UniProtKB/TrEMBL annotation, chains A, D:
Domain NIF system FeS cluster assembly NifU N-terminal, residue spans: 10-130
Classification via InterPro entries: NIF_FeS_clus_asmbl_NifU_N (IPR002871)
Taxon lineage: Bacteria, Bacillati, Bacillota, Bacilli, Lactobacillales
CDD domains, per database record: IscU_like
Name listed for the protein in its UniProt record: Iron-sulfur cluster assembly scaffold protein for SUF system, SufE2
Source species of the chain: Pediococcus damnosus
Molecular functions per Gene Ontology: iron ion binding; iron-sulfur cluster binding
Length: 147, 411, 411, 147
């Protein structure tokens, strides 16, 4: 295989998020933050959320990682901001399904925003962990059961 | 390539498969080596003709299995030039061997405010067991740092070695920096201070010949799966008189001499450490791996790998934006090369190489404190074996450049 | 014999060899089972096409190996009806599994003057770890005795189980007496006293189907090599919330989440217990063994072995001077028969049988306190498998008589 | 193989020693006694010796075991009694050689007495441990290094 296949994963929008991540900062007044490690490479992501009533008012992340983990974290913050907690949990679960190659409803895809593009991860199974790290942290932060 | 090489390659069918439609180029030998057919055949033949539990039956089959199992112990002793088979304990892995020393021997000799001296280039398996021991005993864990050329700083070792040092634990070959440490000198100095020396030979055992008596080490650990053998079998060499002093850490099965309702008496070493049914098939495979290596000759393996590295390293050094960790010169470098490409994350690089059929590690290589010292989170790592060729090296260099270009174009 | 049996036999080439010029009759299945070709093939094929270290690389080969390794965990969970794969820890053996519970969990829940309740029929592997724990903690180790019919005395269990009992450790099937213990009832009673139940399933796992949720046990241990798998791989099932509480006992490799110079953080269970490179080939073999058993169907295995025992036991009972240990009736007897011939030492009997190609164990079967209770030093033991035939049983009975006559003539 | 081969091992003289062992008792005034276990069967043998100057004045054994271990222990006491310690150690070593199938000089064989007959053990390798247990205990008792 040539490197062409890489284009399926490293799309312009992915590179864009990785190089200019959204909401990459800590939240001093976060109601909760969760840090997770990718044990095989040592990358870590910390996700901060500020909830009010049942809604995620603000969400952000810090940490180091590869293109995929940074882009995915950035996309995650876009997708989950302003969602109610149950919907956020559902959205995380949809993302996990997507990375495992499941086809989502167009509604679910829409809710994922840019992250919907990461369906191509199913072709790169070794990188799924990189992509889901931030989403697992987010899900844990809003109190969804881990994995 | 010569005839010998061609024959060797035939023993490793896995190497002729395709990965992502490209011929596999396996460069993760430091994580685990591939297992040649003669080793697999020996294991299968054991299961198909001699399989029985060892040290248990008086019948013919059990006796054959026991003899085979104990003969490999002799073979291992000879392989590392141990004085006799009694100093060879079977374990699951290097990790288990090191844990056994740290928890059984460590508990005997390390006391409050004693010091344990390890190096900053240790694999977690030769680091956390000592960290835990230090915690348990309120002892002090000290690290020998790197010199400017990223070899071990022997001056720092001398400074940190004191009369309080009870154990020096050090790797013979770093799984990241590729350097080989001067074990004989370290042992000589440590023994002057009456400290015991524990050597992690996980990376060295398949690449250089080891003489535990010449090195005068007290303990030495390695794994079968990094030396052409199967997974699940490891070795702990220990000086017989030290093994004798140590208490077993697992109990049951054939490690006992007698058991009553209220107490138990252990067998002598090494058997007292081998509780329950051991990985008998794994032992047979380990023996076959040693036979395989002996037939190839360790000097040939060393020469072949040195030739590969001599060819590869200067080419890598010339790639712009590529940083090599550890010494930059072939003279001080074993067949492991860790590197990074500027602004690229090792995972992305490894995925790129994987698309081209080249299998390398990306990560912290179970050496996080070393990563911190090197100022990185992780690196790419290519580790060579005698079954790689010069053409493989050319291809690898080419592919690294391709990957670099791909990502530089994108960003 | 039926077609299915004939096909099964073909999978075990070892069974068609000769021992001392006689066809092998392998009757030491309780020590280790033989390994069928499909299991060996699966392991070889793994080494020849997917071999890489697990949980380490982002490249294709490593990912395949990791997936294969974790899929077997799911398979094991399903096999013993565990709620999920997270409650499955890979170990070397039953012995290591039981030691892990005793040293990690035991240390958490057993304190001074607490009680640990085991039975007098335990294998040393489910006895010495508790004896050691009791010593370490100044706790009391109590034994449930045998009833008159040499089954477990449940009344005695009820008497000895108190509110001080923290752990009940019991074998599901005795490797000497052949009895199966009422684990479900034992667990129910133990839980009423808030005691935890640890089950040694080394002997039962290959002979009956196990449902850890129905039994409601807290921990359950078994070995691959006694269930058609390779040596060097075992399993510890633990309820997820208990595994979560436990500390690892070995450190290094992929069991960590993060390591600094001074401290380390563990991964979650089950991975925190799997320090260093595991027996990956062994895991693959274990998975293949489960697949093999599932294809045969456990109900068929049970029925076949029951038929053999029903045929064998009454014939043995009739041999004059032959004493059978454990219950004398088929109803309560699994496929293990321990016996002695009057005035003959088990070693002599086993050597006689070995001359006739019949491989049985002679010894204390790692159950010395039980031997003492039975009033013997050792016994002969024949243990059956589904790959034995009724004709084998006839031959065995005949050969026992021959051996008896030989020695009676001599003395 | 029929049971005929067993006759090579269970010879009349062996059965005789096993059924009527010599020096099977404890020695109350022993200068040293050593107990060894056969770990696989649980058999144990304790050897008692009484030495004077450099000579084994008395030697005896107790313990349970199979035909081979009992017979061998009995033969051992016959062989070692009255020997000097260095000669006793040498005799033990000769016996170990014999059981491993080595051919001994006729002088060495003679020193072993009845035990010389146990050369047939080389054909029964699984039983060597049974036969050597008492001799290992004896060797340890006179201060020869173990094994
Ligand atoms: C009842 C019982 N428990 C435990 C064991 C120990 O099993 P392993 O040697 O595989 O650890 C055995 C096997 O000898 C056994 O029969
Ligand atoms: C230097 C070093 N030490 C120890 C280990 C651990 O070996 P194992 O995983 O076989 O226990 C490794 C391998 O990863 C290593 O490279």
């Amino acid at each position: 295989m040539s490197l062409n296949k890489l284009n399926q994963l490293y799309l312009a929008v992915v590179m864009d998020h990785a190089n200019h991540p959204h909401h990459k900062s800590s939240l001093p007044d976060a109601t909760k933050s969760v840090e997770l490690h990718n044990v095989s490479c040592g990358d870590d992501i910390r996700v901060f959320i500020k909830t009010k009533a049942d809604r995620i008012e603000e969400i952000s992340f810090t940490g180091n990682g590869c293109t995929i983990s940074q882009a995915s974290a950035s996309m995650m913050t876009d997708a989950l901001k302003d969602l109610t907690i149950p919907v956020a949990i559902k959205t995380c679960d949809d993302f996990f399904q997507l990375t495992m190659g499941k086809t989502l409803t167009s509604k679910a895809k829409k809710a994922l925003g840019d992250a919907a593009i990461l369906g191509s991860l199913a072709e790169f199974p070794a990188r799924i962990k990189c992509a889901t790290l931030a989403w697992h942290a987010a899900k844990e932060a809003v109190g969804g059961e881990i994995k | 390539m010569d005839k010998k090489f061609e024959n060797v390659i035939k023993d490793f069918p896995i190497l002729s498969q395709k990965i992502n439609d490209e011929p596999l180029l396996y460069l993760d030998n430091a994580a685990t080596s591939q297992t040649p057919n003669p080793v697999l055949n020996e294991m299968v033949s054991f299961y198909q003709s001699e399989n029985a539990n060892v040290h248990r039956g008086v019948y013919t089959l059990a006796n054959e299995a026991t003899t085979a199992y104990e003969n490999v112990r002799e073979q291992v002793a000879e392989f590392i030039h141990a004085p006799n088979a009694k100093s060879i304990v079977y374990t699951r892995s290097t990790t288990e061997s090191l844990n056994l020393v740290a928890s059984s021997f460590g508990d005997l000799v390390v006391h409050e405010s004693d010091e344990i001296l390890i190096t900053i280039m240790e694999h977690h398996s030769n680091l956390i067991p000592w960290q835990q021991l230090a915690k348990r005993k309120h002892a002090k864990l000290k690290y020998v740092e790197l010199a400017d050329d990223q070899t071990l700083d022997i001056a720092d070792f001398k400074r940190k070695l004191t009369e309080r040092t009870k154990i020096v634990a050090v790797t013979q070959m770093s799984n990241v920096l590729g350097v080989t440490n001067p074990i004989k000198e370290i042992t000589r100095l440590a023994h002057q201070q009456h400290a015991y020396v524990v050597v992690d030979a996980a990376q060295s055992v398949a690449h250089q010949s080891i003489d535990v008596q010449d090195l005068d080490v007290d303990f030495l650990a390695f794994s079968g799966h990094k030396m052409l053998g199967p997974t699940g079998i490891g070795v702990l060499f220990g000086k017989a008189e030290l093994l004798d002093e140590m208490n077993p850490v697992q109990f049951g099965g054939e490690m006992i001499e007698a058991v009553s309702r209220t107490q138990a008496k252990w067998q002598s070493a090494p058997w007292k450490f081998e509780a329950g049914t051991q990985n008998i098939g794994g032992v047979i495979g380990l023996g076959a791996a040693i036979t395989y290596i002996s037939k190839l000759k360790m000097t040939w393996i060393e020469a072949t790998e040195h030739k590969l590295l001599t060819y590869l390293l200067p080419q890598l050094v010339q790639i712009k934006g590529l940083t090599i960790y550890g010494p930059q010169t072939v003279a001080e470098h074993g067949s492991i090369v860790a590197f990074n490409l500027a602004n690229l994350h090792p995972h992305d690089v490894a995925t790129g190489l994987d698309m081209l059929g080249v299998e390398v590690r990306a990560g912290h290589h179970c050496a996080q404190p070393l990563m911190t010292t090197l100022g990185v989170e992780s690196t790419v790592r290519a580790s060579l074996s005698f079954y790689n060729s010069l053409a493989d090296m050319d291809r690898f260099v080419y592919d690294v450049k391709m990957v670099k270009e791909f990502f530089n174009r994108e960003s």
